[in-house]
Amino acid sequence: MKRFLFFSLLSILISGCSSSDDGRNNNPNLVDINFQYRLNIESAEFNQLQFPGNQVAIYYEGVGIGGVVVYNVNNDLYLAFELSDPNHVPNPDCPGMTMNGIEATCSCEDNVYNILTGEQVKGNGDYAMKAYRVEKNGRFLTISN
Asked: Which key words tag this protein in UniProt (predicted)?
């Protein structure tokens, strides 16, 4: 009887931990790419990330799909979001979104998103911005998917 209860509980735990989206973004417009980018917040290029309330847009090839924006919330918490508009398929005629304060704007669709929450604040669409992981280790931030 104990063995049956053990395996029943184990089965419930295993099935309870799995989900249909396995933590991935179910947005059909943005593919899941694997990348990792490490930046030094003390470098001239990224030094504004040493201060809460500042953001940096990174448009390097291989960093996200159409670029990534990184935002310093409080020197311990950093946020990063994809700069491709999540409500249409990326294409060469419509580059990554541009930043204006805490808002990211798609010039092709006039969609506007808040980079603190990723939520759309203007325009039409069903999807929020794609979030990435940010890990801080001393003066380095590692952004990854």
From this structure: Signal
pTM summary value: 0.81
The full set of domain ranges for the chain reads: 27-144
Are the CB atoms for 87 and 62 separated by under 8 Å?
no
Choose the CATH number for 27-144 among 2.102.10.10, 3.40.50.280, 3.40.30.10, 3.30.70.1150. 2.102.10.10
Tens digit of pLDDT for each residue in 30-61?
A: 999 999 999 999 999 999 999 999 999 999 99
Nearest alpha carbon to residue 72 among 89, 95, 59, 55? 55
CB atoms near residue 101 (< 10 Å):
9
Measuring CA to CA, which residue among 141, 144, 145 is closest to residue 71? 141
